[in-house]
Write a structure and sequence with these properties.
Layout: H1 9-36, H2 39-55, H3 69-85, H4 87-98, H5 110-141, H6 154-171, H7 174-183, H8 189-194, H9 196-210, H10 215-239, H11 246-269
Helix pairs in contact: 1-3, 1-4, 2-3, 2-5, 3-6, 4-5, 5-6, 5-10, 7-10, 9-10
């Protein structure tokens, strides 16, 4: 009879997913608490591009229309900062959850991938903050007239800024995702090159959905995606799984099964 306490592979994966989600939530919580002590300074930094653009029209103030709005906005700013601070842990937990499906030789790339994930995320958020925000806000404020005055609220701006910064941060992960898929053998450089035109169409559609309904912001998101896609193709060519004869593929599969059996025997012995 099988041991009733023995866990099935599916149950083990669920348990591991639960543990890693708990670690992620704890990391975000710690980042949230740390960021809350600097909530005013963080909000000033977040609103700096908008305030700079509004100063040209003579009005550099944001408003809040509900009494608790400022308080909850500061809480959300702290949460956003906590997520950003916890990105190393979040990417670590994600890639470690994926790592059991990798070959032993491929697992040595986990640490560089985690570091690059954080770097690409920060680069994407920085691109949105320093490049897209100034031009986008200048475009929106261009509709101000003598009878029309922009009066953005704290809540509306935070919702817009957080969505944009997170979107730019995650879309900059595209080269790593493509390289990882190529390393797993799910895509090939030839496949990515052949379907480039469909990817370009998808980028502009995604940019139109994620960004505000103005052409400038959409183009400023779609153009980096095109460049990142090309970087992903290059990464797939360098680090992708090389095509092998059928005999070699079978041998690799057999070797992997032997490794799995040895690991199972070791775990049973322990």
């Amino acid at each position: 009879m099988s041991d009733p306490e023995e866990k099935s592979p599916f149950t083990e994966h669920l348990g591991e997913l639960r543990d890693r989600l708990i670690h992620a939530f704890i990391a975000v919580g710690v980042g949230f608490v740390a960021a809350y002590f600097f909530k005013e300074q963080l909000f000033d930094i977040l609103t700096a591009p908008l305030v700079t653009a509004m100063a040209k029209s003579g009005n550099a103030k944001l408003i809040y229309t509900g009494l608790p709005e400022a308080f909850f906005t500061y809480l959300k700013v702290s949460l956003l900062a906590g997520i950003v601070l916890a990105t190393p842990v979040l990417f670590y937990e994600f890639w470690m959850f994926v790592s059991p499906g990798l070959y032993r030789e491929e697992k040595k790339y986990i640490l560089p991938i985690i570091i690059l994930s954080v770097i690409f995320f920060i680069a994407g958020a920085s691109f949105g903050y320093f490049i897209v925000f100034p031009y986008g806000f200048q475009f929106f404020l261009g509709f101000t007239t003598e009878t029309i005055q922009a009066m953005p609220s704290m809540k509306e701006y935070l919702s817009f800024a957080s969505k944009m910064l997170l979107a730019f941060g995650f879309v900059f992960e595209l080269p790593l995702v493509l390289t990882f898929l190529a390393r797993m053998g799910l895509v090939t450089p030839a496949f990515l090159t052949k379907n480039r035109k469909y990817a370009l169409l998808l980028f502009f559609v995604a940019a139109a959905i994620i960004t505000p309904p103005d052409v400038i912001t959409q183009i400023m998101m779609a153009m980096p995606l095109i460049l990142l896609y090309e970087i992903g193709i290059l990464g797939a060519k360098i680090f992708g799984k090389a095509s092998k004869p059928d005999g070699e593929d079978a041998e690799d599969a057999e070797n992997r099964e032997d490794d799995d059996e040895q690991e199972e025997k070791i775990s049973e012995a322990e």
